[in-house]
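Example 9 (inverse folding). The structure is encoded as follows.
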């Protein structure tokens, strides 16, 4: 069948401006997108740059966007994208720095972030017999996290990274989970100094897109939430997050529902004048849209007393 490939092109050795090249290619009905790229490079355009390695859908090296959807080009069948017409649009991943054509900067996209979470184990003390054996039951969950082959699909699906590219992202945080929950790990508090900092676990919006995109079923979002729970147990060190948590709980406990105005102010800190000033534009917009009427009142909801009792019961159980 004949398919037209419309490919994102960028050559830093020329003007560096992005564009597109168009290639009409005859390929078998069962061809993959990578088959098409190889044919174009080998037969018509040797300057076309793209990555591929295992060609089995394991390494993720060939990940690109096919008609706007992130796919491994080595396993993505061309026929799956040509039902509406014999055209394919190929682009590098969203928001990543492009080196050339479909080749992007993996260090910036993922590896530098994984390096930042200290992706190694530091046992509490060396094993006397040279081995530090952990019961299989304790390692079962960690093995699932360890089965990640860092294809980057979870980061590609993340809804925070397009807003803040410096967010550590689900792939790096899954790596952090693997070591934070290892029973041999001795520096959990030190590791959380990075994870709880800016761009870390508290910036995840738990949209679960990372879980939806993970081809291995590793559930990165679930693991980020587990890291948050562990941070709660150890005591939150991020002062702003601690204030946010305390204000959220206090608001619901007292009135039965969340006071968003109070939450915003108390999260910033009552003495943080600079932070409070940054809230003014948002407060003005809220007033204009009727979401913060004057006078600003936050009345108790029916059933608030029952909610308060639930809080008090939980507080008693955690003492």
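The amino acid assigned to each position is listed next.
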């Amino acid at each position: 069948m004949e398919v037209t490939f419309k490919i994102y092109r960028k050559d830093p050795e020329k003007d560096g401006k992005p564009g597109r090249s168009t290639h009409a290619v005859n390929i078998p009905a069962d061809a993959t997108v990578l088959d098409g790229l190889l044919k174009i490079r080998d037969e018509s355009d040797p300057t076309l740059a793209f990555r591929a390695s295992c060609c089995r859908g394991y390494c993720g090296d060939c990940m690109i966007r096919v008609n706007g959807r992130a796919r491994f080009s080595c396993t993505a069948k061309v026929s799956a994208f040509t039902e509406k017409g014999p055209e394919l649009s190929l682009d590098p991943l969203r928001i990543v720095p492009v080196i050339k054509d479909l080749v992007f900067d993996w260090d910036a996209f993922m590896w530098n972030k994984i390096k930042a979470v200290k992706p190694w184990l530091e046992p509490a003390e060396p094993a006397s017999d040279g081995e530090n054996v952990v019961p299989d039951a304790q390692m079962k969950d960690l093995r699932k996290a360890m089965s990640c082959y860092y294809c980057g699909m979870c980061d590609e699906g993340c809804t925070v990274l397009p807003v803040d590219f410096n967010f550590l992202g689900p792939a790096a945080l899954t790596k952090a989970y693997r070591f934070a929950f290892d029973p041999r790990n001795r520096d959990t508090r030190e590791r959380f100094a990075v994870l709880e900092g800016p761009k870390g676990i508290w910036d995840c919006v738990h949209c679960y897109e990372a879980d939806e995109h993970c081809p291995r079923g590793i559930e990165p979002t679930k693991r980020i939430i587990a890291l948050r729970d562990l941070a709660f147990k150890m005591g939150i060190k991020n002062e702003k997050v601690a204030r946010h948590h305390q204000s959220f709980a206090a608001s619901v406990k007292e009135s039965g529902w969340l006071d968003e105005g109070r939450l915003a102010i108390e999260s910033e800190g009552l003495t943080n004048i600079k932070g409070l000033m940054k809230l003014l534009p948002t407060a003005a917009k809220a007033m204009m849209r009727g979401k913060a009427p004057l006078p600003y009142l936050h009345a108790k909801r029916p059933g608030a007393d029952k909610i308060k009792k639930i809080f008090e019961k939980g507080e008693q159980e955690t003492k």
